[in-house]
Amino acid sequence: YQYLSRYQRRENLDSYVFNPAGGSAGTAEQCLECLMQFCERSDPSWTELSNFAHFLNFQLRKSEQSVFCSTVVTRELRGF
Q1: 52 vs 34: CA distance, rounded Å
Q2: Is 4:33 a contact under the CB 8 Å cutoff?
Q3: Residue 77 lies in a domain
């Protein structure tokens, strides 16, 4: 939710550092609304929302660990 809400507000995600211990970033209603918007299904089931959230989380973790998304690369190659 934290990534999606920042993306929705067009904030810079290159400098964003996810903090899982940072507490809640919004209400449950806001999170659900955001997930439903980005899931791009007109009436998603809980399974579809869960699969979307798990897959997005997996991809975000992989990108955070990638050398291509390191601070050195983002500083030298803006928008990469």
Answers
A1: 12
A2: no
A3: no
Place 18 in a pLDDT band, splitting at 50, 70 and 90. low
Cα separation of 52 and 10, whole Å?
Answer: 21
Give the global pTM: 0.70
Q: How far apart are CA 42 and CA 49, in angstroms?
A: 12
Total number of domains constituting the chain: 1
Question: H helices of 1-80, where?
Answer: 2-8, 28-39, 46-65, 71-76
Task: Output the CA–CA distances (angstroms, integers) from residue 65 to 20, 21, 51, 60, in the order listed.
Answer: 15, 19, 21, 9
Range of the domain at 18: 1-69
Residue pair 62/32 in contact (Cβ under 8 Å)? The answer is no
